[in-house]
Automatic annotation (TrEMBL):
Entry protein name: Lipoprotein
Signal among keywords: yes
Signal peptide: 1-33
Keywords linked to the UniProt accession: Signal
Organism: Pseudonocardia benzenivorans
The organism's place on the tree of life at top rank: Bacteria
Length: 131
């Protein structure tokens, strides 16, 4: 294989690899990958979201540092160690009361929502909007 052809092949493979995997950079000390075809979802830490569940109950979620979740629900306002959040790109998991209830969902722009369940088998949907 000629040198010119080998260089062209290497350049083509490099472009294909970058297109498929995207680039990585650092946000708040954490490596973040972003694909050219999918916009980066901003981190939740420090944000507040509010909305309702499928039973019509109103909630406010406050995403605190260290994956701590503070929230207001129809039963009161809480900020306990057993309430946590985890974000992976646009996917979000909220865990309440050390796992009694788990909300799984995704972020799309200024909206977040998904499905939830608790240890006694109740299932519902939820949706909130960034404040």
């Amino acid at each position: 294989m000629g040198r010119a052809r080998a260089r062209t092949l290497c350049a083509t493979l490099a472009v294909a690899l970058l297109t498929l995997t995207g680039c990585t950079y650092t946000v708040s000390g954490q490596a973040v990958a972003e694909r050219a075809d999918a916009p980066l979802t901003p981190p939740l830490e420090g944000t507040t979201w509010s909305g309702t569940d499928s039973d019509g109950r109103f909630y406010v979620f406050r995403f605190k540092a260290g994956s701590r979740l503070a929230y207001t629900s129809p039963t009161g306002t809480f900020d306990k160690a057993g309430d946590t959040w985890r974000q992976s790109g646009a996917s979000v998991t909220l865990t309440f009361n050390s796992g009694y209830a788990v909300y799984k969902g995704s972020i799309v722009g200024e909206d977040m929502g998904g499905r939830a369940s608790n240890v006694v088998g109740k299932k519902w949907e939820w949706s909130v909007r960034r404040q």
